[in-house]
Design brief:
Elements: E1 2-3, E2 9-10, H1 15-28, E3 35-37, E4 43-44, H2 45-55, E5 67-68, E6 87-90, E7 96-100, H3 109-122, H4 125-135, H5 143-149
Parallel strand pairs: 1-5
Antiparallel strand pairs: 2-4, 3-7, 6-7
């Protein structure tokens, strides 16, 4: 059995549970909210793998070997439901919270999408990464992507100062 990393964790919930919470969140919303569902504690994937092996009647590491393959590029060790600078507020439902984002003017895709498309079509990875960093302040490109992007920071594009709402 393969697992990406011995410490990787993920959140799980059953499909019926998720559907119920999503439908209740949809009925709560007024439009444009981002809801965070209470999913309990994150589970270590290796623990889940060992439990599944035992439930199948085998012993982990004796009958079935667990092989660690490593995280894929950009894959996180632990999921983050809320990022730094974001906060959640309660709703009428104890398992549904609403995300409160910092005030930022909305960015219409017409203002940045043509620039991003041009960078991608021209193969200017450094410019595309710089644009994404400006659009999504919490975005942190991987070391592999930064190495692939190459080029001095001075050659990167700047996001227009005026944003279209």
């Amino acid at each position: 059995m393969t697992v990406t990393h011995p410490e990787v964790t993920r959140f799980f919930m059953t499909i019926p549970e998720a559907v119920q919470l999503i439908l209740q969140a949809a009925g709560t919303g007024h439009g444009g909210e981002i809801f965070v569902l209470e999913m309990g504690h994150a589970v270590r994937i290796v623990d889940l793998a060992r439990q599944m092996i035992r439930l199948s009647g085998f012993e982990p590491d004796e009958d079935v070997e667990i092989v660690f393959t490593g995280l894929a590029p950009g894959e996180k060790l632990h999921e983050e439901l809320v990022s730094d600078g974001e906060e959640v507020a309660p709703t009428h439902h104890d398992r549904i919270r609403v995300l409160r984002l910092p005030e930022r003017p909305p960015q219409h895709a017409d203002a940045w999408l043509p620039m991003l498309e041009a960078c991608v079509e021209a193969g200017h990875v450094a410019n595309a990464v710089a644009l994404l960093e400006k659009l999504v302040p919490i975005y942190r490109p991987s070391a592999a992507l930064l190495t692939a992007a190459g080029g001095p920071p001075g050659c990167r594009l700047a996001l227009p100062a005026t944003r279209v709402a």
